[in-house]
C-alpha cells in the first residue's frame, strides 16, 4: 500500500518538476526572441518524465555519493536535460533566430494549464488521504 501511494505521489511530483523545467525553457525562448542566431529549444515531456521516474541522471550528470546512512541520494538535475531538442522553424529569419513568439506563447500557456492540472490533482490526492486518515 505504501509503495503504491509513494509511486502515485512521486509521479505527480516528477511531472511538476518536468513541467517547471519546460516552463523555464519556453520562457528562455521568449526572452531571446530578438537575439541573433538564438535557436529555440523545447523538451520532449514524455521522454523527460519517463527518465525522471526511472531516476536516470541528466546527460553528463552524475549521482551524488551516499557514503553514510544519513545521506540523501538526490540527483543534481532532472533527466529532462537529455531530451532538450531544437525546434524546427516554421519560417526562416534573416538573423538566424528560430523563435516564433506566437508558438512559444501558446506552448507556454498550454504548459501552464498542464502544470496547474498536475498541482490540483496532487492537492486533491493529499486532501483525500487526509480525509481518510482523519475519518
Question: What would your notes on this structure say?
Answer:
The protein has one domain. It starts with a helix and ends with a helix. It has three helices and two strands. Helices cover 55% and strands 4% of the residues. It is mainly alpha-helical and 135 residues long. The model is unreliable at 57-62 (pLDDT under 50). Strands 1-2 form a two-stranded antiparallel sheet. The longest helix has 34 residues, at 101-134. 18% of the residues are buried.
What is the strand and helix layout of this fold?
Blueprint: H1 2-31, E1 41-43, H2 45-54, E2 84-86, H3 101-134
Antiparallel strand pairs: 1-2
Helix pairs in contact: 1-2, 1-3
Count of helical regions: 3
Helix percentage: 40-55%
From the helix content, strand content and strand pairing, which structural class follows? mainly alpha
Question: What share of the residues does DSSP label as strand, in percent?
Answer: under 5%
User: Which spans have pLDDT < 50 for at least 5 consecutive residues?
Assistant: 57-62
Rounded mean pLDDT score: 84
Strand order of the largest sheet: 1-2
> What's the number of structural domains?
1
Order of helices and strands: HEHEH
Supply Rg. 18 Å
A few lines on this structure:
The protein has helices spanning 2-31, 45-54, 101-134; strands spanning 41-43, 84-86. The chain is mostly helical. The longest helix has 34 residues, at 101-134.
